Amino acid sequence: MRKYLIGLLLLCGLPLLSRAQSLDEIIRLAQDSTLTAFQSRYAYEFQIQKNAQFEALRKPQLELNVAPNYQRMINDISRNYVYLRNYNRFSTAAQLKLSQKVLGLGGEAYVGSQVLWSEYFTGDTANRLRDFVATPLIAGYQQSLLGYNPYRWEKAAEDQRLEAARRQLSYDLHLIAEEATRRFFRLACAQGMLDMCERNKQTADTLYAIAREKASIAIVTLAELRSLELQRLNAANALLSARNEEQLARESLAAYLRIPVPAAGSRLAVPTATDQVLLTDDEALLMARAHSAALQQQQVALTEARHQEEKARKERGPKIGVGLDLGMQQLGSTFVGAYQHPQFYMVGTVTLSVPLMDHGAARKGHAAAAAWTSREEMALQEVDRALTEDVHTTLDNLRSHRQLLARTAEAVAMADEVFELTAENYANGLCDINTYSLAQNRRDEAYNQHLSALANYWTTYYHLLTLTQHE
Fold it and tell me: What is the residue range of 278's domain?
């Protein structure tokens, strides 16, 4: 009986073995199958296509524009003046234009060809007029505001948006790893708790059965027997609660991974070895700044704010725009005739707009843009401050959890040793049930603290990877 009791008390703590899934497998599955992963990849692909569209629009653009037009003039028919006669006018303009944004200046240059056909219907076929205006070659340059180059700002903002989208995808994948780690260890801890409750239930049943045999020969008092019966009832209730928690944890992990709920016998392979992170605070902070999606997104907002501030500053005073058109043009009554003997022409325009009385609208607009730029600069500083604090806190927590993990592992080994000795002493009658229960509770507590420390360490570890993108 003594050997049977010792063996049962020690073997009750061995977990059931089955095919186990590791933390790395769970993370890879989460990054491949979760809804957040799909959304992040689609968002990144969207930004890639938007950037490709942006780059395509900065290349030469060839367009064919055709604009038919119909006009009808109705006047008093009793008045027979030529310029007041009723007439119908139908015209069609066709233009082939090759344009290119001049990225270094902020304007647009173009070259092309166009033709205009106009025909007047006055009711008198003898006075029917038909005109063709042909421009075989036309070239020009337009810039609405000298000294202001929107293309430079647009390029800077677009490049930053693409980089922000790339960082956001990586950040989201690491966040998925964090969440998968939390749910993994929730299930792992629930399984560990279930193991403890099962072995405690088996131990309580065994002790109660032995006590009943001893009670029949008056070796065990009634109070001790009732105490063991209460311990057995509490163990059964704890086992039921642990099973419910383990079921909820399995369903939570399966829902996150978008897979069917695994069977109750499936187990997780809890990692025991810890990865040593050889990063100083300064190195980690530099890596976090280089990979922070929030920092990059805020930089985009600051660039756009500075763009609007410069635009408002240029528009605050006199606004000067320039335009130059030159080419060959001819008018004829036939299509072929319009292309014979074209004449060279050149038209240059300079527009000057001076706000004589705008009640300070331009000045206030610039002040508002400058205030918004200051706001975005402060927001960037706040994002950097929060990132710095998060990096330092995470590193401190990681070091603390690593030390605690080593101590709890030592406590588990010591608790197992004490429990084995106490179980042997109890079987030999050298200690009472209270001493045995105390050793058992201490072993369970040490095991729970070790699982909690392991979960905290790995969750913090993956959070550091999220911040630094360190592999």
Answer: 2-52+153-302+376-468
State the Cα torsion 176-177-181-183 to the nearest 10°: 20
SS3 190: helix
Burial label for 318, CB within 10 Å (0-12, 13-18, 19+), is exposed
Q: What is the DSSP letter of 262?
A: P
Cβ-in-10-Å burial (0-12, 13-18, 19+) of 468 comes to buried
**Dihedral, CA of residue 460, residue 461, residue 463 and residue 466, to nearest 10:** 170
Q: Where are the beta strands (DSSP E) in 74-174?
A: 87-102, 107-121, 129-143
Residues 237 and 165 in one domain: yes
- Number of domain units in the chain: 2
Residue with tokens 């030159």: 326
Cα 353 from Cα 367, distance rounded (Å): 20
pLDDT in tens, 19-39: 458 888 888 989 888 888 999
393 pLDDT tier (thresholds 50, 70, 90)? very high
Cβ atoms < 10 Å from Cβ of 376: 20
H/E element holding 328?
A: strand 319-332
Count Cβ atoms below 10 Å from residue 463 Cβ, excluding itself: 20
CA-based nearest residue to 368, from 452, 297, 308? 308
In this structure, the answer to whether residues 339 and 402 fall within a common structural domain is no
Residues 112 and 178 in one domain: no
- Residue-wise pLDDT tens digits, 112-144: 999 988 887 766 555 567 888 888 999 999 999
Give the residue carrying structure tokens 């699982």.
451
Nearest to 141 by CA among 319, 325, 329: 325
Q: Is the pLDDT of residue 6 over 60?
A: no
What count of other Cβ atoms lies within 10 Å of the Cβ of residue 336? 9
Q: pTM for the whole thing?
A: 0.80
Per residue in 217-266, pLDDT (tens digit) is 656 677 777 877 888 898 899 999 999 999 999 999 988 888 888 776 77
Q: What angle do CA 87, 90, 95 make, to 5 degrees?
A: 150
367 is a domain residue: no
* Torsion on CA atoms 55, 380, 174, 276, rounded to nearest 10: 130
**What's the pLDDT at 125?**
55
157 and 263 assigned to the same domain: yes
Residue 315 inside a domain? The answer is no
- What order do you get walking across the sheet with 61-73 strand by strand? 61-73, 87-102, 107-121, 129-143, 319-332, 343-353
